[in-house]
Amino acid sequence: MSRPFSHHDHPYSLADYGWDEACERAFAPHHAAGLIPARIVRAERGSCEAITDAGIVRAQIPGNIGQGDPSKAPCTGDWAALRPAVDGRGPVLDAVLERRTALVRSSASRNSHGQVLAANVDTVVVTVSLAAPLNHGRTERMLALSWESGARPCVVLTKADACADPQSAAHEVSEVAPGVDVLVTSAVTGEGLDILTAVLTGTVVLLGPSGAGKSTLGNRLLGEERLATGAVREADGKGRHTTAWRELLPLPGGGVLLDTPGLRAIGLHDAGEGLEQTFAEIEYFAKDCRFTDCAHVSEPGCAVLAAVADGEISQRRLDSYQRLLRENDYAASRTDARLRADREATKKGITRHLRATYQFRERQQ
Questions:
Q1: Is 0.90 surpassed by the pTM of this model?
Q2: Is 48 annotated as a binding residue?
Q3: Segments in the chain below pLDDT 50
Q4: Residue 296, annotated as binding a ligand
């Protein structure tokens, strides 16, 4: 297993981590307040590691930041404003800048909040191993999250050296990834890595299950063995979680790499637009359905069902689309229920305050 990389091994600046003129403009009010610009490279409970022009610092995260909503908590990739260290106390995170993009899944606790996996990402690399049977449903799920984030997705087929016909597999995956580059790679032979390097831009996040070869691919992109890697179990072809946290690492040719732990479950969270782009061909035919609210089940005049009958859409694609829509609708209903409960709690709080005020005035008369 390779040695985990430490940011303290190399001197880097904010520019190496993506700081540009847009960041400078967004940070102007914080500059005026005497705060320090930083990008979070690793977030933990109560503290984070962040890159500044003075190097890597550990900053305390106040309890009120992100309280009650995990999606607002500081995350790897966030641009942040730090209050400088004073009187022997380390720097403190003061604010998180507005995110340009955010890769969000439903939280592991299955509550109504989303969990941000990565912030301010430009390219999402969906990794799919060719050493295991293809799982199109999982790929579609990851693509929906990727499109919804606002970043550009790219599917990378890893371990081509372990596949008898990688080009056939690439064609098959392309059928479920409309509008997305699908690249065949091998970390063993180096196949496709030069093409992949050419298409990656900005902050790049590696997304996929354990055993898909994310960390090995990341090491090839970095040009060094910085990310911990582990063997895949022969019994079931599954990998172990060798990446224990999310962290940012500068790429030698420019840009930033964000490696993520393998995801066993990727629940959708408010991913309606992502689903539309992932299943673009279904949305294309749906415009010609007789009913605007057609569910594409048994309705008369359904253009989608007609396309399935004509072989233009596979039944598996339609089934996957409907399954993910139901999941997304359920997640949205939980969010709506939480918001209604929050509004009701706010109204009750105002009512209690007014009642107490009136009672106090009556006692004073």
A1: no
A2: no
A3: 1-8, 233-244
A4: yes
